[in-house]
Amino acid sequence: MISQKLNDQITRIGPGTSAGEVLRRYWQPAALTDELTEARPMVPVNLLGERLVLLRQSNGEFVLMTREACPDEPPAYYPESDALEVVQNGPRYPVVEMKGMYFAYMGPSAAPAFPKFDCFRAPDSHVFAFKGIWECNWLQALEVGIDPSHASFLHRFLQDEDPEDSYGKQFRDKAAHTNMPMTQVLREYPRPDIEVEETDFGLKITALRHLENDFTHVRVTNQIFPEAICIPMSREMTITQWHVPIDDENCYWYTLFTSFAKPVDKPLMREQRLKEHRLPDYAPLKNRSNDYRFDPEEQKTLTYTGMGLDINVHDQWAVESMGQIQDRTREHLGRGDAAIVRYRLMLRKAIKAVESNREGALLMRDEAAATIVGPLSNDAITATGDWKEASWEADKQRRAECPWDATV
After folding, report:
1. Is residue 58 helix, strand or coil?
2. DSSP-H helix ranges across 258-383
3. pTM here?
4. Among residues 68, 109, 118, 315, which is most buried (max CB within 10 A)?
């Protein structure tokens, strides 16, 4: 457990706050490119506790500008009416368009370079972007993503469907080098050993599920500082997901789905996700107001939660049920929370660096950030004594067969 003072320090993100000043020194997803059209040339953006508007300037460049506050506007949603009056003398933040998303930089110093992560290196044909709202603080949204054990419970499927019918769905694949469905691996081996190591971009998190006959399932996921994760979706696809604060009590998740071998079927993936979200605010159709459409009959036969097959809904329920800002003064972390503990230490270290004007001590802030590639994010089944090398080899093979330059 931690003190209330520390909990406030690592969760609150408005201008001048400790965590907010760290996040402002990194590029933040601000909108999807689908949101800005000729018919809709300005898009309201609520980001890091600031009310902004995204627009394209006459020179073709994009910018985020302060907009007049609308007192009737809920923080996570916005109307299509008159909330877009720009404050001409307010802050102006630079914006870049990348892979179906607009990224904004809201820091006081020069913006850092983008690393050469797979989601940024892949051609547009192999990347799909989407987002959704969660009504909770950004940190608890991030922390569920760096907990490898939760998938065995929260995302437990009681039936194993054919992966060929599961395009674009996480955990609906077969584990690498075996015919065992990933849903079965997670269900039958729910308590992995977890190894966490620091990297030049954040954390590498390895979950080891020891199977029968001296074999081990190795699942490698990553925390990309300050608020993103990169995890395997299937053998062919990874997910890079940012947990972006709207304000202290609401956040967006922005995801880049990246395919190694084949171009992504963007119309299908968008159609799948729009079955669970409404436009234009990308709010989930299953939410607290309708009890996430919980179905007790489904819970008996199909899923652990009884809330459908979309794992985003499972995560949403878990993080929103903690309250809009989790009370960490009452938590009791255990062995399975190793990545969460390490991440909080990294965040506190970054806060101290900013407060002492040592910005160069932050991860991915120097010129070397542009040379960072990867990260390794996959799953494999291998002989227990050789799991490290086998995990690397599985990743190398996938990259060698990739039609775009995915070398590391």
Report:
1. coil
2. 266-274, 296-301, 311-320, 338-355
3. 0.91
4. 118
